[in-house]
Specification:
receptor; GTPase activity; eight-stranded mixed β-sheet; elongated; transmembrane helix; Signal recognition particle receptor FtsY
């Protein structure tokens, strides 16, 4: 082999050695550069552990996902820079061996100057870097596109920053919402304007009863007048009269007494027409209703205290509505009324009574839901004495007559109230639609609180108007009030003559 051949072999060997050395340097740089960002990513993980930074839990627990601390947000770009620098940027480091390249400066702006100094410090072979730069540049001109990952890495943290921006801080602004929340309803307590509404006088209310007792007219009035106006009655006809009275819910004992009086009246006078029969029947029925009873409601004030009216009854009879309607009538007569909401078991009853108080201009005393009814009733009477009220109407909770504990509680209410002022009137509210079933209720209530009067409600919607006769006969207590409908003025004093006229048509 010639000398020239040996020279060529030596040159090739030197070039191979230089290429191997340059490759080793590149591998070492990859490891250092790829490992450096991993150390920087640790602080980024800690930024999501500070859960107490922003308080967004006011509107719900889901706000905790938006609580990264703002102080460490600038370090967030280091995690994406770790991945992008290790892949496309590794080949760019080979070009960084040329002194004229600007890539190292660009990495300084993103990952810091420390990774570059560590990468170049261990080389110690400047000649090798200079010689290797020449052959590497020619085959890899596209490595200059390393700059592309830089903009992709930067927008990611920028996009994260607006998420962390204190926009939710404006969510805390709802705090001023409770400013006037309860201030406005307080003004509602003063609407005493509704009393200006015209209230139908009690004397005119019975004029509407005829049409509302249409069902009772069919079952009692027309049937009886037709039977009695047919002349002499045989036993079969009297049985028909008895059946008609029982259907009208007069009750067995009341029906027996009415038939006996009808026999006597027809025996004394000859009845040949329906008009005559109607007159005889009216006299008998009015007498059976005991017109001599005192049916006035004891609601006038005493010299040193107001009168006290206790309203009792079972559930669903219309106690609260009757109390409100009675208050409306008393206010129309110029009386100062105070309402006591002693039905503490039903929140709707308290609100309903307050509504009635606002409509008629009456003060309402109410306790908390579930409070002791006796204490509320006592407080109402005490307030009535202090305010100089003319009458205190106390609405009690509905209770079944079979519940011994609740009935004892009703007796307790009456006893506690009487420590402050005597109870002048105990009105038992009965539902006329239940017929004879209301008699047992009336008996039990009368034994507990000494019922002094009955208010018969829903009389317009029942075919059993005869319950009035049965109640008075069994209890010996007068029916004082009747409910003729759902209107605010559909409450009237009970008058036997007017009732019988409406019943017979």
């Amino acid at each position: 082999m010639s000398t020239e051949s040996w020279i060529v072999v030596a040159v090739v060997a030197v070039l191979l050695i230089l290429a191997a050395a340059g490759g080793a340097l590149l591998v070492s740089r990859k490891r250092k550069i790829s490992l450096a960002p991993k150390a920087d990513s640790k602080p980024e993980a800690s930024t999501y552990q500070a859960k107490g930074g922003f308080s967004f839990s006011e509107g719900g627990s889901g706000a905790t996902t938006l609580e990264p601390p703002p102080a460490r947000i600038p370090e967030a770009p280091k995690e994406p820079a770790k991945v992008e620098a290790t892949r496309p940027g590794d080949q760019g480091d080979e070009i960084q061996g040329a002194p004229g390249r600007g890539a190292p400066e660009e990495r300084d702006t993103r990952g810091g100057a420390e990774p570059e100094t560590e990468a170049w410090a261990p080389t110690g072979l400047p000649g090798v870097g200079d010689d290797a730069s020449t052959p590497v540049d020619s085959p890899k001109p596209t490595l200059r596109d390393v700059k592309l990952p830089e903009p992709t890495a930067e927008p990611e943290p920028e996009a994260a920053e607006p998420e962390v921006e204190p926009e939710p801080e404006h969510v805390a602004e709802p705090e001023p919402e409770p400013e006037p929340v309860l201030a406005e309803p307080k003004a509602e307590a003063a609407p005493e304007e509704p009393p200006a509404e015209e209230i139908v006088p009690s004397g005119e209310r019975w004029g509407n009863l005829r049409g509302r007792l249409a069902r009772s007219q069919n079952s009692v009035g027309r049937a009886l007048v037709g039977l009695l106006g047919g002349g002499d009655l045989d036993e079969e006809s009297w049985e028909d009269v008895e059946a008609t009275l029982l259907t009208a819910d007069l009750g067995a004992s009341t029906t027996e007494g009415v038939i006996e009086k009808l026999r006597e009246a027809l025996a004394r006078s000859e009845v040949r027409s329906e008009a005559e029969a109607r007159a005889v029947l009216k006299d008998v029925l009015v007498a059976e209703l005991k017109p001599e009873f005192d049916r006035s409601v004891r609601a006038l004030p005493h010299a040193d205290r107001p009168s006290v009216v206790l309203v009792v009854g079972v559930n669903g009879t219309g106690k609260t509505t009757t109390t409100g309607k009675l208050a409306r009538v008393l206010v129309a007569d110029g009386r100062r009324v105070l309402l006591g909401a002693a039905d503490t078991f039903r929140a709707a009853a308290v609100e309903q009574l307050k509504t009635w108080g606002q409509r008629v201009g009456a003060e309402v005393v109410a306790g908390a839901e579930g409070a002791d009814p006796a204490s509320v009733a006592f407080e109402a009477v005490s307030r009535g004495v202090e305010a100089g009220a003319d009458v205190v109407l106390i609405d009690t909770a509905g209770r079944l007559h079979t519940k011994t504990g609740l009935m004892d509680e009703l007796g307790k209410i009456k006893r506690v109230v009487e420590r402050k002022a005597g109870v002048d009137e105990v009105i038992l509210v009965l539902d006329a639609t239940i017929g004879q079933n209301g008699l047992l209720q009336a008996k039990v209530f009368s034994e507990v609180v000494d019922v002094t009067g009955v208010a018969l409600t829903k009389l317009d919607g029942t075919a059993k108007g005869g319950i009035v006769f049965a109640v008075q006969k069994e209890l010996g207590v007068p029916v004082k009030l009747v409910g003729l409908g759902e209107g605010k003025d559909d409450l009237a004093p009970f008058e036997p003559n007017a009732f019988v006229d409406a019943l017979l048509g």
